[in-house]
Amino acid sequence: MRIGLFIPCYIDQFYPQVGISTLELLEKFACEVVFPANQTCCGQPMANSGYEHLGRGCDHLFAKNFTGKCDYIVGPTGSCVMHIKHHINSGDSQQDAWIRNNIYEITEFLTDILKVESLPA
Asked: Could you tell me what percent of the chain has a pLDDT over 90?
């Protein structure tokens, strides 16, 4: 199973160890993980400030980075994943529908898709 690893901007800038841990956890469960190096913000800060239209470039880049390159998109932050799931508007409705149906927060992915019942530590 090929996973597109979505690391939001604030995780990248302030908590990179969370991104690394997400990668390691997915690999522990035998996922093939790809990381689009030119990914950026999900657009949530602009939307939350009332300037959602300024985030359209983020939507286009997100779709370009992940569509057709993986089976699922997984990220370590619920708010950014939720923003993409409910607000992406890349201009391609089929592409946006695929993203909405295949993006997961890491815990949701582990329990709902991989059916992980316990994590030995």
From this structure: 78
